[in-house]
Amino acid sequence: MSAILPRKVTGYSDISEQVLSEKSIIRSISNLSVQGSPGTTAVSVFVNALATVATYTPGSGVSKTEDTSAYVTLNNLKEIAVNEILDGYTQETAPADIIASRFAGAVEGIGESIDTVCLAAVVAGGTELVAAAGAEPTAALMYGKILALKKALDNAKAPRTGRSLIVDPDREALLLDTDSKIILNTGGERANNILNEGWIGRVAGFDVYSTTLLPAATNIIAMQKRGFAFKDNWKIEPRLQSLDGSGTFIGDSAIQARYAYNYGAVRATLIQVDNGRA
């Protein structure tokens, strides 16, 4: 990491973006093609509809139809911030680089906050798959539940690419249990992300992610990224702000950052949720 300057960390934006993307899964599972600044109240995402097809009759042609594609507006602007005081004496005497570690902690905390809010919105804006609900899943039931969720996405004409399956650690353990008869594909270019991005492999056309931040009573989310849109940006990048001379703090500083994001479900059928618990 570059040297820390009095007000800002040189080159830290690249590092902080990397840490956030590794600790947070929301970017990996969402449509990021959103227009507008995340710092404004509303942003928009284009939802493309199929064209209407009709029989052509030579001599009379075919009737004109309207394009039903449209922009969907997202009005869920949130701004979050970190403003954490660092004792000046501790900065000077700590055996490790406490400033760098607190920058990482600030960014990771922002990522956790974002995922908590957005995963709740994914579930609320999705479609509960009744056929997959019921008793709390066992290892033996996991593959059947995954196939039911896959079938629902197939019937919704969800693209086969860009599909994600999100589970919590308890459901991950069931999925990895030998009784599930599931073998995850953990090879390819995503293999290096197993430990640092929540990605644990692929099954049935899904990239599988594990997170502790699923809403209570949610077993599995199966989605295609066109179903949920997300836009984010630093308004104030992480920086070290001196508090010396404030009249109150002597030799202290603060880790500060300000972040804005906008989000929302745009196609409920492309988000299939199993909420069944005993």
Structure notes:
Helix 1 packs across helix 4 and helix 5 (139-155) packs across helix 6. The chain has one domain (12-48, 71-274). Mean pLDDT is 80; it is low at 1-22. With 278 residues, the chain is of the alpha+beta class. It has helices at residues 12-23, 26-29, 88-93, 98-124, 139-155, 169-176, and strands at residues 43-47, 70-74, 78-86, 127-128, 163-167, 199-203, 206-210, 220-224, 228-242, 253-265, 271-274. It has a six-stranded mixed sheet with strand order 4-11-8-5-7-6, with helices on both faces. Strands 3-10-9 form a three-stranded antiparallel sheet. Strands 1-2 form a two-stranded antiparallel sheet. Helices cover 27% and strands 26% of the residues.
Chain-wise SSE layout:
Layout (H helix, E strand, L loop, with lengths): L11 H12 L2 H4 L13 E5 L22 E5 L3 E9 L1 H6 L4 H27 L2 E2 L10 H17 L7 E5 L1 H8 L22 E5 L2 E5 L9 E5 L3 E15 L10 E13 L5 E4 L4
Parallel strand pairs: 4-11, 5-7
Antiparallel strand pairs: 1-2, 3-10, 5-8, 6-7, 8-11, 9-10
Short description, anyone?
The chain is of the alpha+beta class. It is built from six helices and eleven strands.
Distance between the termini: 48 Å
Number of helices: 6
- Mean pLDDT over all positions: 80
Q: Which structural class matches the secondary elements?
A: alpha+beta
Number of strands: 11
Radius of gyration: 23 Å
**Overall geometry:** flat
Spans of at least 5 consecutive residues with low confidence: 1-22
Main sheet makeup: 6 strands, mixed
Give me the strand/helix succession: HHEEEHHEHEHEEEEEE
Lateral arrangement of strands in the main beta sheet: 4-11-8-5-7-6
Q: How many separate domains?
A: 1
